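Justification of resources, computational component.

The compute hours requested in this renewal are based largely on the per-chain cost of generating structure records like the one below. Each record pairs the submitted sequence with a full structure-token output. That output is archived, and it is also reused by downstream analysis tasks.
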Amino acid sequence: MRLKPAANGAVIALDQGPEINFCRPAVDPMFETAAQIYRSSLLACILTGMGSDGANGGRAIASAGGAVIAQDEETSVVWGMPGAAAAAGICSAILPLDEIGPKINSLLR
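The structure output for this chain reads:
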């Protein structure tokens, strides 16, 4: 799953290409293409999940000037995905699940 530029912003493009990070859909290609389109206006949240999917895409978001918020280890069922993002040093915040919504709200104001 990727994003493609469209007249009114972007559209989702699905494909049956090879698995990325051992899964399909994977969040890395979606994050990477979203970073190309939205640049510094992009905010991504990486919540509980297995593996490291999201870390490479999150790196693209951070490099484009966007922000990445990851769920903290204590409130994650599985800290694989948010933990990989945290270990990569790309997160603007690492928060408990119940603080992520208010953080997004404050950023959007």
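The chain has one domain: 2-108. Residues 27-38 form the longest helix (12 residues).
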